[in-house]
Amino acid sequence: MNNSTEILFTIGQIINSLSTLILLIAALILFIKKKTLATWLILIGNILVFITYIGSLLLTVFTGSASMDTILMAQGFSIIVQNLSYSLFAIGLIILALTEFSKPKS
Questions:
Q1: Where are the transmembrane segments (predicted)?
Q2: Binning pLDDT at 50, 70 and 90, where does residue 1 land?
């Protein structure tokens, strides 16, 4: 890679890291303000997303000298776990939307 592509990828990783961290903070604030099944799922899903994100970065560093098959297997596993975490977060968000914003006005 040349220098300009490395800069682009670095900027992308920084933005992704910051948005992941901001979303985790928002989920934590939401959970502190209201402890329900929905906010539990949102928080747990988001924590797992954060852990798998950091894990995938570390995995890339540690498998850098491994064979291509090992790298692809590790990345595939990481993507599956991260997407399951996003699904848990999304289910919690749907439950929150249905329970908190569907109440009839009195």
A1: 6-31, 38-59, 79-98
A2: low
Instruction: Say which residue the tokens 């990481």 belong to.
Output: 78
SS3 10: helix
User: In the chain, which ranges are continuous DSSP H helix?
Assistant: 3-33, 37-62, 68-100
Residue 5 within any structural domain of the chain: no
Give residue 105's pLDDT band: very low, low, confident or very high (50, 70, 90): low
What pLDDT digit, counting tens, does each position of 41-54 carry? 999 999 999 998 88
Alpha carbon 1 to its chain's center: 27
- Residue 86 is assigned to a structural domain of this protein: yes
**94: domain range?**
12-100
Q: Three-state SS for 56?
A: helix
Sign of the CA dihedral with 71 first, then 74, 76, and 78 last: negative
